[in-house]
Amino acid sequence: MKAKKRTTIYDIAEKLNITASSVSRALNNSSHVNEETKKLVLKTAAELNYKRNILASNLRKGESKTIGIVVPRINQNIFSNVIAGIEETTYSKDYNLIICQSNESHEKEVKSVNALINQHVDCIVISVAAEGSDYSHLQNVIDHGIKLIQFDRVADDLETLKVLNDNHQASLEGITHMIEQGYKRIALLEGPQNLDIFRQRKQGYLEALKLHNLPVINELIIENAWTKELGADATRKLLNLPEPPDAIFASTSDFSALGVLEVATSMGIKVPSDLGILGYSNEPFTELTSPSITTIDQFSHYMGKTIANLYFQESENKESPIVPRTISVKPKLIIRASTSRRSYQ
Amino acid sequence: MKAKKRTTIYDIAEKLNITASSVSRALNNSSHVNEETKKLVLKTAAELNYKRNILASNLRKGESKTIGIVVPRINQNIFSNVIAGIEETTYSKDYNLIICQSNESHEKEVKSVNALINQHVDCIVISVAAEGSDYSHLQNVIDHGIKLIQFDRVADDLETLKVLNDNHQASLEGITHMIEQGYKRIALLEGPQNLDIFRQRKQGYLEALKLHNLPVINELIIENAWTKELGADATRKLLNLPEPPDAIFASTSDFSALGVLEVATSMGIKVPSDLGILGYSNEPFTELTSPSITTIDQFSHYMGKTIANLYFQESENKESPIVPRTISVKPKLIIRASTSRRSYQ
DNA sequence: ATTTTTTGTGCAATCGATTGCATTTTTAAA
DNA sequence: TTTAAAAATGCAATCGATTGCACAAAAAAT
Question: Which CDD domains match (chains A, B) (predicted)?
Fold first, then answer.
């Protein structure tokens, strides 16, 4: 069956012997149409199964009621939750979401962002890929008059709306907790340091050590260990040191922490008694492992709602320019078995 | 900073003293433009930071190069993988994806589908919500000349392109495996029977029992136990029966299987020796639980690629009408600890 | 009864890109 | 050198909805 031609406002107009203008006004519930015609139009529209052509409408109005989202991966806890949070709010306002994944590739991120600019989205919400440090594509978004909201992983020197976690604080609390549990040689698995969030987590780690007069041991700090595999590799290296750590903070993700746990288990090292493990993100699986993994919850769903609200707030006062500002959400330490050698065990 | 006006083909045309037609042709790499002008246009376009207005382009061409996807939840393994699979293929062809979640609500599904029709997407890919059995909104998609591809959970009486798992076969194999492991009283946690996939899984279960001359015991078949909580409730009920089952097939999902495992563990029932557990979907967490959960992998990423290819295949021969057909992907039983009382343990 | 205001419609331009047809320019063939 | 063919460009309509302006009809005010 061939695609039939769709009903347009002209079809409705013709049938009712009025102009398309009136039909348009009726459909938009304008006050400049007679109640009678309005009813008639709506009825006929329903009869003819009319669907407004958003392309035409948006072209004319210069808006798209669409928000583009670019995240590294949609199936990571924080991102799918943020998306769900955004959706809840935007859905009720008849906005569409276009979701893109960068797969941590800078090139794909750039292409996605450009595609969204092409689409004339009203706003782009992004958490940048680990790869890359050139953010001219984001500047480009702003230059095109499209609102830009960054979250979690942000390009810090770009002045935009930002919704963040207080990574420093979370990290500080996590390490403090470990120290209180009696861990003394705490290793750090770092994420790519070009990303602010990972730098902050490192700062929190360093500060916690300092506050408790613990030395910073460079061989216990491992760069770029942010997947499960890299976390596992790093752990093998660490546990084979002459003086191995008694705890590992997988600051990059719970996936990395999972790698740590698996290696430790396979090496016969007891968690949490011989080795404490702290992850990051509160992925659902962290409460399923044995022992369950202590981690940090980012309130990602709430972040999503915050982002959406921020957008609508900004849209309302169209005249005033956007004041770049940062909203910081305080994450929460979720204490589980993998660090609880005093209380738990 | 106010949104500056964007560069259009007219701006380029004016600057080069040619017409917009030529600019358009140059940008579309038409053979009807001089190589020189083509180069010049491309250069100027880059200089002026030109971005084609897809709204205008699509309006004119009557296509949108956009595929809409509606799934119950994007953070469920099968769905996020299918989406990723679709994206890989469509991305290289410059297609956009609009992703909607129905959250298992029929009403939201209908609204999402209508929004996608409004958007003039070229194709809608859907896995229907558990709720609801009226599929006129899908008929509506077809009536609007939009391609419709259903996957996994489908409205069976609607004649469309379908990409499915062979649920019956998978279920049959899973139960056969359990029987071979010596389980004799195997309970079934059913999903909503208005969905074909759950009916098929039940059929597979029944057939396996029959093949091995095992009786069908009605009190071991529990309706609608398809979340973690419902799975847990069902398990409590089952294990408190005078003659409790020695195995449970959570045919609905691994989440349900997880509920089973947690209840069993808390009741001190040993898995797999006292109770076998089989899940469905191969969620990532199933290999992390202890014991790890035997489950069925649906090759969801591959399904996604299949869906995308199916679409492009159909788009190519525009003339011939769409022949409704079904592609069935054979799932794979992943044997883990939760059912391995012979070999493993 | 006349003027003013309100309300409802229509007209026509607009958003930006595309494309069939006509026209001009260039190139090749006779 | 003239003619035919090919290549490049321009013109103008089109996709469908929206909206400022003009105008007519109806209602309200004088």
Answer: HTH_LacI (cd01392), PBP1_LacI_sugar_binding-like (cd06267)
